[in-house]
Design goal:
Layout: E1 3-8, H1 15-26, E2 29-32, H2 34-47, H3 54-62, H4 77-86, H5 90-105, E3 113-118, H6 121-125, E4 131-136, H7 139-152, H8 159-175, E5 188-191, H9 197-215
Parallel strand pairs: 1-3, 1-4, 2-3, 4-5
Helix pairs in contact: 1-9, 2-3, 2-4, 3-5, 4-8, 7-8
This protein binds cytidine-5'-monophosphate.
Cytidine-5'-monophosphate (C5P) binds near residues 11, 34, 169 and 173.
Amino acid sequence: MTFIITIDGPSGAGKGTLARALAHHYNLALLDTGLLYRCVGVKALQSGIALDNQLRLAQIAQTLHPEDLTRYDLRTHEASDASSRVAVFHDVREALLDFQREFAENPPAGFQGSILDGRDTGTVICPHARVKFYITAQVEIRAKRRFKELQARGIQSIYSVVLKDMKERDLRDSQRTEAPLRAAADALTLDTSMLSPEEVLKKAIAFVEMRRSTER
Ligand code: C5P
């Protein structure tokens, strides 16, 4: 069975940072599943498709190509907002399911397994993953991190607006009926509010090793 790690949690909690570090440490192929929803949102905006047109949004989702994930405009404020709006729809999520499962089960040659980060990777996409994490942090701290990240990339923003957007997105992601954001029952929850990325990685590796040793 393919070795799969899933990492779920709200935005700005440090999922991506942990996913990259674990991917490097264990030689795992990494899929940031949020990029799929960002692509659907951005393509819809570009083609003038309303963000509540489930049928057309699902068509976009069905025809995504792996190279779409490398678009330069997936991290903007508009992309973040659009992604969580399109992510509420069943047909959109369904259309993206196979791509994610296929990636998880059959990572590209040369990798020891796969790691996926998002909102439902441990609960819906890969419920049989061997190791699951739920990464969270206080919303003010997450907003501060995102604000600094935007500043570092030269994107003008205002902290209070970033915080407001984040709260809105948290609400939409956790209150939707389709695959809402929540921790899988067998996930290790880590609150990164007071932890450095190195401390988070250390705890995560200890958990992976514990899981692996109990399965040998
Ligand atoms: O992780 P990221 O912030 O890039 O995700 C963008 C949006 O995509 C999230 O706010 C969420 O609405 C959606 N998403 C999702 N399921 C995933 C990953 C992301 O619904 N597995």
